[in-house]
Design a protein that fits this description.
The complex is a heterodimer of chains A (698) and B (102). By secondary structure, chain A is an all-alpha fold. Chain A has 2 domains: 6-60 and 71-618, no CATH class; 625-697, no CATH class. Chain A contains 28 helices and 4 strands. Chain A has helices at 5-26, 28-47, 50-55, 93-116, 123-142, 146-164, 182-217, 225-230, 233-241, 244-258, 267-270, 276-285, 290-308, 312-337, 343-372, 376-407, 423-437, 443-464, 468-501, 506-513, 523-538, 543-550, 564-570, 574-594, 600-606, 608-618, 623-667, 677-697, and strands at residues 58-59, 66-68, 73-80, 85-91. The longest helix of chain A is centred in the C-terminal third of the chain and has 45 residues, at 623-667. In chain B, helix 1 runs antiparallel to helix 2 (28-50) and helix 2 packs antiparallel against helix 3 (58-89). Chain B is elongated. In chain B, 7% of the residues are buried. Classes of the chains: A mainly alpha (698), B mainly alpha (102).
Chain lengths: 698, 102
């Protein structure tokens, strides 16, 4: 690695962010290009750690010294030794992998921003938060302890909030009737995202502090991941007090909020109010993966610790919750994605759905750990899907950004016929959508297939080890995952067809009549698109390499580092289910949207049942409305009651009483305050005389 | 050698003059002069008490010199305030400046 790479890869973007306002004084060009440069340097540092992971030892390229012979390698600075508070970085496959995803996609999207955000006002703020985000995200994944990770966790939350509401000054009418301007609506979306994720963050913080307090009780206070794994006394004490299961579930609360899982998934569709680059970087490729990262980070620790203290039922509960929430979220969001009208909303729902897949895979990994003591299968599936999803979803968002940039509308039904105007974007987005849908041989196919395979293996293993319930759950999870794959293909085809294949909409014709022409994206925008397209086409073929990378330093993991992995995937029993899912999702989508043999609108008119289902899905299962009415409305009602019966009746009345008493008391002295200096001085003289007399005769 | 009580007496007389001035005069500038006399009474007292038959404590002199310097600044501020008061009220009579009184 380059010297100090694990530190510099997150310090450089943060320093860059702080320098941005200064560089803006020199000139806007300097500011823009230097901001991009900082993120590229960060990627160079992050990428320089990859060879070390493959080699299994850490080498400083500058001096040639071997810094460490083992992976994971930690570099730590003690801050308060007695409290176990430290600052440090952890270099292991997972952290290096995530750091590369965050800074690599960050750099590409920053380059794209040069074109997409060209000529916008307030760009200093934009570059500041983008760089700050990249720094915070890499800090989050490189941290070697829970506390520092939580700091990064909050930094990315803040940047997400600030960037969703980036266009808060827009004066156009609001897309929803509750607000006056679009700017107000955007600001509200940012707040919604911030407050919703905060609920999960509080749960996460409680869990972190509980673990910390119990490590304290065990005599070795620490936040450090490796030390938590090594000294398991804290877990024993937690079991003794009966808090272990609640703690691990609360720990999962953080990922639920950050990764937009049910029941806190409501914020992500609104987060699309931000610029598309922000949606691509923060709300698709990196920040929402922080939750997946955290689960992947703690899962091996939990397996190790809970096995050591003979309390694997906690592992079972945790994994079950993760897997079920993941599977349900994948299904839930996919149903909403099938009916959404805005292109970015479709992508947002599909992000939620795909993250559900990753959670499902990690949960399956945990359950496999419970059944056979080896989490590798599910863990690999989850991280592999994370990588391929990060690439193709960034690609989809950036293509959608190019489309939005030239049509200036978010509504898919106001587009249409863009194929001939934007051929490059069309091809890129098509490959992205097919990868999302899991069409072979694109990267999405291999990663999704790995997840199905893991679920299948879980079911088989569970039955053969006598865990009937887990086996049954495994089949149900697999079934849900396959159904979701069908819906994924459906909405991918629908999105592409409506945007590019359908005839040109009235809106676009009107626009052309006004003299504005739809144009292909500028070069600086389509070059990142093409790079991402290539990666998402060939990405799946790096699976053996990825497996070697991910399991560096693990013991006893069976690695299929050859063509075997592809053959295994292609001939696994789940491939038939996948083909069935393609038929189930693809055929209706083809008739409705591609060939347009059946008009979807008329179809809904005719069939009452489908119309009801459509409106149920379109209204997001009424979960959003429910939260708005019960939680937000209930909170406001509660506040009114408290205001009336406590604030006004008790607190205010007490204050008035105090004021009244003081006033009546001072009335007694009022006459002595003449406001005349001479009188006051005479009083001083009298006082001196009295004191002198006391001195003389006292 | 002049005895200590002479100095203390002179200081007390200065103090009384200052207080008398503050108690009877209405003009702001005269009041400032009164304050200045009061301060000088304190200075004289300080130096007198810091001096013994064998010599004097240089620290007292240092403090008094600093105090005179700071006092000059205070007087300058007070006079500038007086000027503003005069512009605002059109008078220097303290009895007329009662806006802060209830």
């Amino acid at each position: 690695m380059l010297p100090l790479a694990p530190w510099l890869c997150w310090a450089i973007p943060i320093i860059g962010a702080i320098l941005t306002p200064l560089l803006a004084k020199i000139g806007s060009k300097v500011r823009d290009y230097s901001a991009v440069l900082f993120s590229i340097i960060s990627f160079v540092f992050a990428f320089s750690m990859v060879p070390d992971i493959f080699a299994g030892k850490v080498i400083d390229w500058l001096t040639g010294n071997i810094i460490s012979n083992v992976i994971p390698y930690q570099s730590r600075v003690t801050w308060i030794a007695d409290l176990g508070i430290e600052m440090g970085v952890l270099m292991d496959p997972l952290s290096v992998f995530m750091a590369n995803i965050a800074s690599g996609l960050g750099a590409l999207i920053m380059v794209y921003s040069l074109g997409y955000m060209h000529g916008e006002p307030d760009l200093t703020r934009y570059w500041f938060f983008m760089n700050f985000f990249v720094g915070g995200m890499v800090l989050l994944v490189m941290a070697n302890n829970l506390l520092q990770m939580f700091i990064g966790w909050e930094i990315v939350g803040l940047c997400s909030y600030a960037l969703i509401g980036f266009w808060h000054k827009k004066k156009e009418p609001s897309p929803v009737p509750d607000y006056e301007t679009e700017g107000e609506y955007n600001a509200m979306c940012g707040m919604k995202a911030f407050i919703t994720t905060r609920i999960g963050d509080v749960a996460l913080l409680i869990a972190i502090l509980t673990i910390y307090v119990y490590t304290w009780k065990a005599g070795n206070p620490t936040f450090n991941f490796l030390e938590l794994e090594e000294h398991v006394e804290w877990a024993r004490l937690l079991v003794a007090s009966g808090l272990l299961v609640p703690t691990v579930i609360l720990l999962f609360g953080g990922p639920i909020g950050k990764s937009a899982q049910f029941p806190l998934h409501v914020w992500l569709p609104e987060a699309m109010a931000g610029p598309t680059t922000v949606s691509a970087l923060i709300h698709a490729a990196t920040m929402v993966k922080a939750g997946v990262y955290l689960v992947a980070r703690v899962l091996p620790i939990f397996v190790e610790v809970f096995t050591m203290i003979n309390f694997t039922s906690a592992l079972y509960t945790f994994s079950m919750v993760v897997a079920c929430i993941g599977a349900f979220t994948a299904f839930l969001a996919a149903t909403m994605g099938m009916v959404a009208r805005e292109v970015k909303k479709v992508l947002a729902y599909s992000t939620i759905s795909q993250i559900g897949y990753m959670m499902l895979a990690l949960g399956i990994g945990g359950l496999l750990g419970y059944v056979v003591g080896e989490i590798a299968e599910g863990y690999y599936a989850g991280t592999f899907h994370l990588m391929s999803h990060a690439v193709f979803k960034a690609l989809l968002f950036l293509s959608a950004g190019a489309v939005l940039h030239s049509t200036r509308t978010k509504d898919m039904f106001e587009m249409g016929g863009l194929k001939q105007y934007m051929p490059i974007t069309y091809k890129c987005m098509l490959f992205g959508a097919l990868s999302l849908a899991g069409i072979p041989p694109l990267s999405g196919f291999w990663s999704k297939e790995t997840i199905f395979d893991a679920a299948w293996v879980l079911a088989q293993e569970a039955y053969s080890h006598g865990y009937t319930f887990i086996g049954m759950t495994g089949y149900i999870l697999l079934f849900i995952a396959v159904i979701t794959a069908a819906m994924t293909l459906f909405y991918s085809i629908r999105m592409i067809a409506i945007i590019f294949i359908w005839p040109k909409s009235e809106y676009l014709k009107e626009m052309e009549r006004k003299g504005e022409h739809i144009h292909e994206a500028p070069q600086i925008m389509w070059v990142p698109l093409v790079i991402l397209t290539i990666v998402s086409i060939v990405g799946g073929f790096f699976a053996p390499l990825f497996q070697v990378f991910m399991f560096q330093g693990w013991e006893g993991v069976e690695i299929h580092a050859s063509v075997e992995i592809f053959i295994r995937t292609l001939f696994s029993p789940t491939i038939l289910m996948t083909l069935g899912a393609f038929a189930l999702g693809g055929i209706p989508a083809y008739y409705f949207y591609w060939s347009r043999k059946i008009d979807p609108g008329e179809f809904l008119e005719k069939h009452n049942f489908f119309r009801m289902v459509h409106s149920f899905f379109y209204n997001r299962w009424y979960i959003n409305d429910f939260y708005m009415k019960v939680l937000v409305g209930g909170f406001i009602k509660l506040s009114v009651v408290i205001y009336k019966f406590f604030e006004q009746a008790v607190v205010d009345r007490f204050n008035y009483a105090v004021a009244w008493i003081v006033r009546r008391f001072t009335e007694l002295f009022r006459k002595t305050h003449t406001g005349d200096l001479n009188y006051n001085m005479i009083a001083v003289m009298l006082g001196i005389i009295v004191m002198l007399l006391l001195l003389l005769f006292g | 050698m002049i005895e200590l009580y002479w100095y203390l007496g002179a200081s007390a007389i200065l103090y009384l003059i200052g207080l008398y001035c503050l108690a009877t005069k209405r003009n702001l500038i005269k009041l400032i002069i009164g304050i200045e006399i009061l301060i000088n009474a304190a200075h004289l007292n300080f130096i007198a008490l810091g001096t013994t038959a064998t010599g004097f404590d240089p620290l007292t002199h240092t403090y008094v010199i600093i105090s005179i310097g700071v006092g000059a600044g205070v007087i300058a501020l007070a006079l500038s305030l007086t000027l503003l008061v005069y512009r605002h009220y059109g008078t220097l009579d303290v009895r007329k400046m009662r806006r802060l009184k209830w």
